[in-house]
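Checklist before submission:
- one chain only
- standard amino acids only
- sequence pasted in full

Submission:
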Amino acid sequence: MVVTRLSGHWTLADRFASPWHYVPFEVPAGSAALRAHLEYERSGAILDLGCLGPAGFRGWSGAARRSFVITGAAATPGYLPGEPEPGTWQLMIGLHRIPVAGVEYRVTVELASSPGELAADDPPEPPPPLADRPARRLLPAAPGRRWLAGDLHTHTVHSDGVMTVPELARFAAGRGLDFVAVTDHNTISHHAELADATATHRITLLPGQEVTAPGGHAGALGGVGWIDFREPADAWLEACEQAGGLLSVNHPYGGPVSWVAPMKRRPPLLEVWHWSWLDTRWTTPLSWWQAWDPMAIPVGGSDWHRPGSDAPPGSPTTWVEAEDTDSAAVLAALAAGRTAISTGREGPVLLRVGDELIASDADGTILVGPDGPKARVRGSLAKFPAADGYHRLVDESDATLALTG
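Returned file contents:
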């Protein structure tokens, strides 16, 4: 075992120079595994942790972890397994918050030459599939398509969530969802687990990542590879487009994590409805949407991390009118703008199908267009001529229950 210890001091001047700093260390040929540990005084400081190998990205855990292990066969969640290639490695340290006095840090890197000397923690046993799950909700759709209920913003143990990928799949399936995008922060280590969990729990898990930087968070959807969060936001969009994925601005009005990053072009998707829209009588999300890009395709996300801190998956529910239930079909429906959002999987839904707006299970609600109220909804299935612009269903207090682009 080879042990390297490094230490230093970061100041506000370092943070002003760059949000990210690097601690290099050498990995000799023949290394079977490595372990890195970051220590610092947390009073007033928040440091993020990640790793680059000679060939590029090897993992990110942000402030959720102080240490990680990488071996040939396994790795700490957030990190990519594979034998450590020889050469210069770098710990990526995000200076998220630095106190006025600065912060002392200490790094310990252990390198093992024999398999088994260092090991990542074994994952928990995956849960069995549900014996019974809610039936798919049947909604009016164009010929050859169906409306699928899902969530485009969730997290697991691969970043700062508490559920494993299989646990999330089972939980979301139990809530009646057809698809979920797994969008862990600044990593793609979870992507390797999605196919098995999709098959076991009969719910489509979309590959995703929440590109997370000081100027805002963006959902990169699809198997687009790792997006370098250190680049400007325009580069995220270009990388997604080149790889056939979709980019969404997440929680653009989300308190201290609101979107402030400049962009020359607009991403195709906008997370108009996030769990933090606590009072749906307020029209802040709608005004942000119309000011940012009225043509942006509206989507929603629960931003699920753990019980008691966020809304559960499907709150709100993003609906897509898709030709199949697999990832490619869901992404194609999103790209085409065949979306709707509702408070949850059950209750009122407003759909745009052909040249009609269809309100389902919305008796007594009010249809509102861009220029104000348009009609009272009567019956369990009401149809109205489609018109340009976004439309909503509201209750008598003007609270939004459902919307469509």
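Reviewer check: The radius of gyration is 23 Å.
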